[in-house]
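Sample pair:
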Amino acid sequence: MKINLTSLAGLFVVESFRLADRRGEFSRLYCERELSAVVDSRRIVQVNQSRTSIIGAVRGLHFQYSPHAEMKLVRCLRGRVWDVALDLRAGSPTFLQWVGRELSPENGLMMVIPEGFAHGFQVLEADSEMLYLHTAFYTPEAEGGIHCQDPRLHIEWPLPISDLSVRDHSHPLLSADFSGIML
């Protein structure tokens, strides 16, 4: 695995390398030893998988408030997605800046999204499947969200948004006085 820095402190893009032969392929999806520099003493406590069938659909932007804030390690297992991490940390020099990357099984990229970031993705290929590793349990009362089309964010979704869940559509736009989330 190769850990790559991004323009946002604490946000990493990890490359996994595939070994291929006539039988197929092998790829390491997670290695505590290799990722210890970014995961540190956190533990993976929950693993989730999603499948989204509609091209252009967006899931997100989601996060959890402290004390249930979580680091997420996110991969695309099937299809292709445009994955976005948005810095919501109060006082951060990169507050409200985002990084997007295309994730696919072919490129083997994984986003490592720290606490204090919102996460979302847009489906670029039908029936895309995502794998999420979380360092905190899902806690409904700590759940937060921001509308993925908030004009203050200037997120450049590659496709017109074709579908949003009722929940994601109801996420608020940021208020003028929003100054971030505390960790």
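The longest helix spans residues 32-39.
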